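Students often ask why inverse folding is considered easier than folding. One informal answer: many sequences map to the same fold, so there is more than one right answer. In these notes we will look at a single instance of the problem. The structure comes first.
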């Protein structure tokens, strides 16, 4: 192994460690700043997440999935009903 390649490997490992550390820090902050369970803030977040699938369902998502898969409409409506 050449001296230059050892330095490059050390740099790549260090870069990977920094990127993973930043990602884990971001996840940790997101978990600890989430609204408490049962609060109005949590309900607003849940409602915002459910608005998008509802809009897509009324815009014909079942037919789009049926064109891709044999039982796409059935599964799409079943999964939407479970939410």
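Output (designed amino acids):
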């Amino acid at each position: 192994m050449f001296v230059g390649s050892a330095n490059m490997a050390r740099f790549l490992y260090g870069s990977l460690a920094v990127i993973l550390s930043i990602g884990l820090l971001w996840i940790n902050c997101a978990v600890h700043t989430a609204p408490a369970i049962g609060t109005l803030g949590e309900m607003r977040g849940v409602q915002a997440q459910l608005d998008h699938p509802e809009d897509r369902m009324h815009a014909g998502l079942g037919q789009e999935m049926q064109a891709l898969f044999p039982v796409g409409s059935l599964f799409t409506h079943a999964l939407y009903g479970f939410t």
